[in-house]
Structures are given as structure tokens and as C-alpha cells.
Amino acid sequence: MKPSAWRAALRIARRDAVRAKGRSALVLAMIALPVLGVAGVDVIARSTQLDPAEQAARAMGTAQASVTVSTPGGTVLQSPDGEKTTSKVPEKDQPRTPAQQRSASTDPAQLLTELLPGAVLVPTGQEKSASATTAEGRMTVSVEEADLTDPVWRGRLDVVDGTAPTQPDQVAATRSFLDRSGLRIGDRTALRGLPARPYTITAVAEDPGRLDANALYGRPGAVVEPLTRTDPESADSGPQNSTTWLVKLPAAGQVDWPKVKELNEYGFTVTSRAVLLHPPARGEVPFYAEEAKYSTGYVNKSVLALAALVPGMALLEIVLLAGPAFAVGARRSRRQLGLLAAGGGDRSHVRAVVLAGGAVLGTGGAVLGLLGGVGLVTLLRGPLEEYGGQRFGHLDVQPLDLLAVALIGLVTGLLAAVVPAVQASRQDVVEALTGRGGSKPANRLVAVLGAVMVAGGTGLALLCAVTNTAPVPGLLGGSVIAELGMLLCTPLLIGLFGRLGRHLPLSPRLALRDSMRNRGRTAPAVAAVMAAVAGAVAVGIYDASNVEKQRQDYRPGLPAGAVALFQGGRSDADPAGFASLREAVEKDFGTLGERADVLSPTALPGDCGTSYRCGYVQALKTPDKRCPAVDATTDEERERASSDPRCASMRSMPTELSSMFGDVLVGDPALLHNLLDVRDPAADQALAAGKALVFRPDRVTGGKVTLRAEEQPTRAQTDAGVYRGRTRDVELDAVEVRSPLPFATVVMSREAAQRAGLGTRAEGSLWKSAAQPSDGRVQKASAHLGKLDDTVYLDVERGFKAERSAMTVGLTAFAALVALGAAGIATGLAAADSQQDLATLAAVGASGGIRRRLSGFQCGVIAAMGSVLGLLCGAVPAVALRLLEARNAQVWIDGTPIGHEDAVIAVPWADLAALLIGLPVVAVLLAALLTRSRVGLTRRAG
Amino acid sequence: MTEQLKPAEPVLHLDRVSRTHGHGAAEVHALRAVDLRVYPGELVAVMGPSGSGKSTLLTLAGGLDSPTDGRVVVEGTVLGELDRKKLAAVRRRSVGYVFQDYNLIPALTAAENIALPRELDGVSARAARREALAALEELNIAELADRFPDDMSGGQQQRVAIARALIGDRRLVLADEPTGALDSTTGESVLAVLRARCDAGAAAMMVTHEARHAAWADRVVFLRDGLLVDETARQDAGSLLVTAAANARKDGQP
């Protein structure tokens, strides 16, 4: 075709698009929306990716490098950015290099200044968790040190409001801390352990890479060190001496790649500005060679498949949805295209006009989507950064990326217009001009090809999923082939459907026959509905299967309806204030009934507060049922025992119920009532008599239960590589009690525990509410508690609750809406096409009602067929994806993969039935309601 | 209108053309061995009752349909020997159609509608527009150039359609009841335009129902049941009018 002919075609298409505004808007929206999404994601992803200068600023502020002591006495191999490292430490009998010897014997800071002459080291990375007072209570906060008046921090830690702390009693806080604590600049906060030293908040500091950081920044030496002094034991939890420094060098000084490699020799890991800006060639990086040796290359293929399947299927759906719009357009302008042919246009010209429509709307949609995507990201930059937890480097709009995205839009438009274009070009000119003809028998060969494609595509997708081979092309290709095959079968299926009509009343019979006669019009509409329904069904089945899997895996931690207040979990919880927290809960909930205070026994005697340093107690199985590895003292014994059949249960997921408080508990009869649902006076008496109540038969033998108390290993032990503390076994008189809800293995009284030489630790409190407390009440109480002390938390057991994501609901609703729209378009077209029939009907005396019903049923036929076919198509990718995910979910035992999970596939029958029946019914009603029953004058054309 | 010497080559030659639709019991003979020549400068009116094959004659003459028997020759080219693409090229370069209504593509202006066949043929948009403007000028409707069909009266649309039918070197206009959708005054003025184009050298074949429109023709051919039953020179048009009216009454038409 000549360029001038293309120009003419484009001109006609452009003007047509403007003339048919509603239809154009629909197609534009369908193309623009996904382009908007992809363009937006691209801009966000690109903007989040920092360029080297920004990366350097985040890592080291304005310093020249950030250096960390990794392995003194060893050699570090690192990637140029210092993100990935591995180290080599010489074995004891191997000789050390001079550098290794020197680093093992020299203070790292000292060594660093020797290696980098003239360097000024700014320590960083001193961090400690602390409990700070807030406006209404306390909360946990990360405490760090930095001299924010030093410009070296700029870009890594910025003061965005107020003035940087200059005095030891001043701190800067993050926005997140201020928001959650209710404090403001100028307010004071005190840290637990340092009540006499309140700090004044003078500034809001922001780590651009961690906007959600909940932290306080004090002057060097003013916060972390005093805290460590008050609680020497917690020194283990954070580095005492700085191991990372920002390195300031004299003017023009820099740490180049050879220097980085030299520092690596001494066991330092380095992130250098100079290296980030001018990275070395891959061959110069020893780390990469090392990495290649150990790379496993394991990729979870199901993630890749999902990533390909979703956009791929979405593209197909859009093509199928936009297709009918072009088909409608081509059909509406049948005569116009006929004129074109009469005026000397050949088939390629006619095709070009319809294709140009796709190009015009595709380009329009793409441009609209691009502008929308970039515009939205620009507008919503602040909230987006906060949502993502980090600032953008800069708003990065990559023209090449966006061009590619825009091409997707254009291609979508063109693809959607291809079939209508070919159909339009094949139409008989004389028939087009006179408005006659149109009904041709369905091509059986095409239908057979379609059936083969359905079977082949389905088979391919399932086979690839089950065997985990080439899942990306397999799943996507198979699903697409199956859906396209279904499309090819549509005309024949419509014909078969039409035969059902013989015994129906007039309106549905006429509607069926009409759909059958005008397959060219019905098929694309059915395809559109099918596409929309297939999407909804795929999402529905996938989601239902996920929910079912979660239901199978769910283990309740408490009896249904229980309200639990947990005190444990953190070493800095405040046992003294616990009573007031309990009161707060009881007040917030109103009537909660009997309260059970839950304790657990500890290996060390006495009251252990909430700390975990007092060891644990477990109930051993009777010797004949116990896994020998439990009693093994050496690795060899454990090794030997691991093949014992009694140890099998240790390797699988626990199937026994276990409460969130633990399974050996100390408490009073209230605990029996609330946790175990045991209301037996005999049990209460036995408990009072100092006996252990045992709820699992395999723990009792001869009226005794064996408890094993295991102390925490001491520092000296862990340093020596022993990770088990001292253990001792105690025997208690036991009574076996049956519980309908065995959430615990053993319950004993406090006195019994003391007599056995065990201590106790408060775990929390448990109530059993007669009525399920409302979500709102729970949230309110939780918020209240959080303000008083954020180390405790509240939990209400409600049984398994399916978390249907808002996304799923939204997608389903969207699919239903689109399906209705597609059915509506087709009906409108049918109504326009059958004006003459309607006129004839009116002439022979048919009432307006009949014509309304006719329109309704025309729409219903399309919706019903589309729903049935969509149901079949949608199942393919969902089932295949679930199979693939199960195939990729390895089950590990002791570090060895022994197989993969069984696939859980659930079909949401109720939802599907609703879709299958509801959609056509709504379509019929809507079409009937919206049809004008008056008949316009028809005129003969030709 | 002076009597011209007829050149040896007709612009359109229907050589014993037959067209049959359907098979067996459903067989319909739309045209039976019709023989007809249209010469340059000649306006031929085709008359006949409904279903006599008038429109079929026109679609065959323009290559939109092909005969089951016989040959259609346009400017020396036998249409039956051409493939689809070359047929379309003939329609672009040799034949112009004017229908009863909906002649123009609604998305294009008058000038663009006229220029369309030229643009499809590869002429640059600017050159095609120049030709279109010249054609409009010739028909004294230059002011319509940038109007869309929706903004034109029926008569104006038909004039634009005639201009389009004759753009380029096309010399054969096939008109299917070009005045059918117009009131009688407007219809007459459109026919005057067609007549003028023929006097300027074009050849035209026009299907019409109305005998008085046939009076504009040089020659009137009469079709009945697919057969050419009568052919009258324009000089005898008066007598034909009587016959035509009588025939029409017999067919139950006004």
C-alpha cells in the first residue's frame, strides 16, 4: 500500500474515532489503563533505583567511603558496591598473610587510619533498642548516635525540621517516632534505665532510605553508651564498639578500587564513592569469580510464571475486549467500507481503515496512559515515597522505557483491530452496500482447529506446571492457546446453541436465531464476555485455592473467643506495670468474666519477670515413645537416633495443638476453664493438691510425668560452641485429664512448680468472652494498650478467617462490570442491526414488550455463552499456576528437600454459580430496561 | 448538444452478459445475455421494473460483481481477466459510482471524499486535494470543499459524489438512482450536472425509475426479467416516455 493511501486510511480512522465518541472512549480507557499502570510502575521503579552519586550519598553522606570491620584476621572478597561479600579465614594450621596477621593484632580503627593516611573516621552504626516515654505511655525505639551538625551526614541522615542536637541531652527523632509517640519538637522523652536523664527532641531527622525508621539520634557517646552501662547484659544485643566508619579524606583524596582490594586484605568491607562512580571491570572483581563457584542458580519458577502470566493474560483480555469495539465499528461502517471498495479501494485499503482505527486509538490510549502514569507519580511523589519507605533518587523518566510501554498500547490496539479488519476486508461489497447477507455457515475446519488448540493448550499448561519445565512460556502459551482455541470454536458453538431454540417462546427463540444468523456479530461479543469472565474465574479459583491452603495449614493458638493479653516476648517489658494493663483491658472490654493469669515454669527457681534468661521446661514423652535424640548427649548419638521411627514426628510440622503461651503452664483452675475448657471439680482438686494435670496420654506413665528443665547456656558455654544449657529432669505426680481443647500438655499450680524447684515467669492473662468482642472494640483496646506499653499485645482468637484481598474482590467486580459492558455493546449492535426485523415485528402487531424482551434475550444469549466458555478458559491458568506453585514449594527435612507440596485446588462453586446465573440475568434485565421499544423509520439502502 | 461521431471503442461494453444467482430451484436469472455499449459523451438511462436486473447491470459494469457468462469490457480491458487488486485499480482509475444516498464517507470532508480515489492510488495528499478542488470548482460548488457530508444537503452530496466519480482520468460514471432520495427540483439540477459532464466527454450509465429523468439521456435501455427488451435513441424519447409510463402502470408502479 502506498503512503498516501495509509494517510487517507488514518484520516478516516481518526475522524471516525471522534465521531463515535462513546465507543472510542471505551477502547481508549481499556488501552490507557494498563499503560498507565505499567508506566507508573516503571517511573517508580526507575526513580527508586539510585544513580551512583545518589547511592553514595545514601551510603556515606558526603564522606569518601564507608568502611566496616568484617573479619579481622581474614580476607574479604566483595562486590564493588560492598553489598555482597564473602570472606576467607585461614584454618588454624594454615599460614596467615602479613596483612591478616596485622589485622588480627591491631585495633581496627588504628589500622584504618594507618592504611588511609590523613583519614578522619566518623563512627556509625551504633544502635540499640530502648523503651522511650511517649505522650501517653512507652514505646520501643531504636537509639543511634550521630553528630548531625557534621555535614558528613548530609544525604545519609538529614535534618528536615528543627535544629540538629548540639548538647548531650538533645536528640533528633524520626517523623515515624513523633507520629506514633504523639511527641513534637521541644518535647522531652526519657529512656528506660536512664530516668534521670530526659532528652529534649530538637529536630526531625530523616534517613532517605528508611522513611519508616522509628529512631532517636543522640550526640556521640550521649545515648548508647550510658544505656549499655545501665544494662550490661544487653550488651550482647548490640555492638559495643563501632565497627563501621564514614571515612573523610583530605581534599581530592579518594578510595579507588585497588585501595578497596588492599583494605579487603585486612578484613575490611568498603563502600567507596570513587568506586561507585567508576566501577571496575567485572574481571577485576575477584568476588564475582568466587560467587560463580557457589551460585546454586535456583530460581522459584512459579514466581516467574506468575509474573509473566498476569500481564500476558491481561494483554490477551484487553485485546479480546477491545476487539468487539472495533468489530462494532467495522460493522457500523459496513456501508462506508463498501463505498470505499466501490470507489476503488481494494481489500488492503479496507483493512487499513479498520487497522488505522486500532492504531489511532492505540496511540491515543498509550499517550493518555503515559501522561496519566507519569503525571500521577509526579503528583503523588510524597505519599508514594512514604508508602515505599524511601525517597526517590530523582524523578526518573526513561524515554526508552516509556516508548516500549507506549508500544504495548499501540500493539494492543492493532491486535484488537486485526480480526475485525480482516473480516471487514473480506465482506462482499455488493452485500455491504445493500445491507443484505451476512449469515454464512460456521467453518467446521476452524472449529476443529479450535478444539485441538483448547485441548493442546490446556495439556501444555498443565504438563509444564506438573513437570516444572519451561513454566513461563508453557503456562502463558498454553493458557493463551486454549483461550484462542475456544474463540475459534465460538461460531460453531453458537450454531449448536441456536438449535436449542426450537421449543422456546417467541422472544428467546428469535434472539437465539438472530445470534446464530449473525455470528460475525455475536462471536466477538461472546469473546469479550468470555475474556472478562475468564479473568474473574482465574482470579477466583487461584484465590479460593490459596484460602483453602491457608485453612488447611491453620492451627488455632487459643480456644475460639478467647481474649489474651501477652506480656512476654521482650526483655524490656515492665512486669510491675502489668496489673494496670490488665485493668485497662478489662475496662476497655467491659465484661470479660473470669480472668486466668498464665505463667510458665522456668528452669531457674524464683520469679523470673519476663526475661527469657531463666530457661525452659518441657514435658517429655514416656521413654517408650520418646525420640532417643532428645536424650542424646553427643552429636554421634543424635545422628544415630535421627533414623529412629520415634523421631519421625519431630521432622514434620507439629500436629498437636499448642497455645500461644506455651504448652507447659502454671496456673489456677481459671486457666483450666479458659484455656482447656475443663470444668471438672476433680481436676481442680488435683491441681490444688499439687499434682500436674497432663492432657496428652503419651506423657504419663505410672502416675508420673517427667519435666525437663533446661537452663540458658552461659556466655562461656556459647563461646565454647555449646548451645545447650544445663538440664535436669524432675518427676511430678500426674493425673491424666481429657480436654476437648488440648491447648496445653501440662498444667500445674505455682506451689507444685516451686516444690519441684522450678521458677515461674508471667506470660499474660486469658479471658473467655461469652460473646465474640467486636473488631472495633479489639482495635480500640489494642491502641490503648499500645500507648501504655508497646511491649504487650492483645490477641483474640476468632478461628480461621479467610483474608480475601480487596484486590480479588475488586478484580471480580471489575470483570463482572466489563462482562456486562461487553454484552451491552453486543446488544446495542444487535438492536441496530435488527431495526428492520423490529420494524417488521411492529408491522405484524408485536407489542413493545416483545421487542424489549427480544433485546433482553439477545444480550442474555451472549452473556450466557460468554460465561460458560469463560468459566472453562479461566480454570486453565489458575489450576496450572497452583500446580506449579505446589511443585516449587519444596518440603525440607533437616536441610534436605524431600519432595514438594501437594497442590490444593479449590473451586469457589458458589461464586462461579452466581457468575454463571447472575451475569446473564442482569444482562437480560439491563438490556430489556434500556431498549427503546419505539421503532424508528427504516430506509432501504441501495 | 450536438450529435457526435461515435468512436470505434466504447467506454463500456457488456458483451452478452448473464448473471445467475443461486442453484437449482433457487436459481434466479438476474441478467440474460445483455449486450450493451456506452460511448464517450453518452448518457445511457437504464429503466425497468423492480427486480428486472438494473442494479445487477451496474455492479457488473463496475466490476463489483462478475458475470456468470459473457464479458464486461471497460476501456478495452476485460474485467473478468483481472484479479481482485487490479479490479480495484480499475474502479480507482476508470469507473466512478454514484448511489442513491449515503454516497460519501461521513468522516471525510467533501474535498477529501473527492480526493480519496486519487490518494488510494498513491497521489500525494496535496496533489489529490488540488484535483478535488478543481473538480468542485468545475461543478460550481467550491464552497463545499471543507464541509462534512452531515452538513450538506442531499443535492450537494450527490454533486460531490459525481465530482468524485469523475476525478482523475475516469470517464465512466455508473449511477444507481442518483436522484432517488432527492426532491424533484434538486434531482433535476443533479441530472443537469451529470448531463454536463457527459457533454464534456464522459460516459455515464444511470439506473432510474422515473421516465422524466430518462429524458436527460441520449439513449434509454429497458430491462425486463433480466432481458434487454428495448433500446431507444434519445430522439425518440418522447415515444418512450409513453411506453415507459404504460409499462410502469402494468407493473403496478406509479
Please explain how this structure is put together.
The complex is a heterodimer of chains A (about 950) and B (about 250). Chain A is an alpha+beta fold and about 950 residues long. Among the domains of chain A are: about 125-240, no CATH class; about 450-555 and about 805-940, no CATH class; about 560-635 and about 645-795, no CATH class. Chain A is about 50% helix and about 15% strand. Chain A has 32 helices and 26 strands. In chain A, strands 5, 6, 7, 8, 9, 10 and 11 form a seven-stranded mixed β-sheet that branches. In chain A, strands 16, 17, 18, 19, 20, 21 and 22 form a seven-stranded mixed β-sheet that branches. In chain B, the strands form two sheets. Chain B has a six-stranded mixed β-sheet, with helices on both faces. A four-stranded antiparallel β-sheet of chain B has the order 2-1-4-5, covered by helices on one side. The longest helix of chain B is centred in the C-terminal third of the chain and has 16 residues, at about 185-200. Chain B has one domain (about 40-65, about 85-250): Rossmann fold (3-Layer(aba) Sandwich). Chain B has about 250 residues and is an alpha/beta fold. In chain B, helix 3 packs across helix 4 (about 125-140), helix 3 (about 110-120) runs parallel beside helix 5 and helix 5 (about 155-165) runs parallel beside helix 6 (about 185-200). The two termini of chain B are about 30 Å apart. Chain B has helices spanning about 55-60, 85-95, 110-120, 125-140, 155-165, 185-200, 210-215, 235-250; strands spanning about 10-20, 30-40, 45, 70-75, 75-80, 95-100, 170-175, 205, 220-225, 225-235. Chain B is built from eight helices and ten strands. The chains are: A alpha+beta (about 950), B alpha/beta (about 250). The interface of A and B includes residues 347 and 942 of A.
